[in-house]
Amino acid sequence: MRWLVGYLENFKSMSYFSRMKSSNYTSSYLHSTRRLPFDLSRCYQREFSAKMYILKALVVTLLPFAALAAKKPAADRFEQYHTKALSSTPLKLDDSLYGKLTTAPRDYSLVVLLTAMESRYGCQMCREFQPEWDLLSKSWMKGDTKGESRLLYGTLDFADGKGVFQSLGLQTAPVLVLFRPTTGPHAAADAGPIRYEFTNGLRSAELVHAWIISHLPDQPYPKVVRPINWVRTIAITTTILGTITFLSVAWPYVLPIAQNRNLWAAISLIAILLFTSGHMFNHIRKVPYVAGDGKGRISYFAGGFSNQYGLETQIIAGMYGLLSFATICLAIKVPRIQDPRIQQVAVLGWGAVIFIMYSFLLSVFRIKNGGYPFWLPPFA
Predict the structure, then answer these.
(1) Within a domain: residue 30?
(2) Is-above-0.85 flag for pTM?
(3) Is residue 280 scored above 70 in pLDDT?
(4) Which residue has better confidence, 77 or 57?
(5) What are the TM regions of this chain, as residue ranges (predicted)?
(6) CA 14 from chain center: how many Å?
(7) For residue 298, what are the domain limits?
(8) Are residues 92 and 126 located together in one domain of the fold?
(9) Mean of the pLDDT values across residues 3-17?
(10) Which of 74, 97, 127 is the last residue of a domain?
């Protein structure tokens, strides 16, 4: 449109006769012919003036539309894709659409998840994070239907955007990038994308939401709203109601058992034996059950205090349990025996059990700590 206006101005500045005189052919022709009975110059001038007025009116009429058409792509790009995002979010991108949305100038923000969802790529984190990403984008769009935050969500799969992955030099996925506006009242000084790192594993929608708003202007933004899990709610409610019903019916039978001291003593002893024998150590370190000793035989006990086997824990727990049971019998059961001979035999028997098991415990301790000097027969 600018070139049309300039052309008309240049055309107006030159009169018909000045252009005619600038031509040698026209000048020689005028001198070689006789003067006509009527003046053609006035006819040409009137015709030219009429055409000029028509062209001026046409230009003045089309200028606003041309200016509007020039501004429309930059101004309506956000509105166009925000309308699409209201029905389907996040936006599914490809190489061309990614370039179109990230091209400056832009008066909106854009968050893009670069992922690889196909199973052949083996991106487990991509598949695990995708539900959180969908929840975040849908919650944002439901809370910002008017587009006041001027933020769009998009997803670019590796299958649809290999060119973008190569241009960014990405070797892993998922990658989250934020593009801030380059024009407008909230334009960022640095127009480059901001990258979110998944360094500590999977992140929830709430954590990503907090990261996004930390880079946006300070104003209220939509919150993440998780849908109600009706299956889980119904299952929990049914379980609670069933438990209450069972307790109300079985309470007369359950109460005597719950008040039994022997039951609680047994539960306490089992818990003590489990935790003192190293059961938690096995779960934390994922230790092997047994191992070889290098001579073709099985090693049941690992040397050193920082190592142990799964079977070793069970053996130690059994030793502790037998020692505890023998001690309890000597302290509680044996004094209640009425026959003196049987009582004496019980004392000697349980005493021998304690002596032998303690000797075995010391031998195991010497395996764990080779410098331990004490021992008891028969296990030296």
Answers:
(1) yes
(2) no
(3) yes
(4) 77
(5) 230-251, 263-281, 315-334, 346-367
(6) 69
(7) 260-368
(8) yes
(9) 42
(10) 74
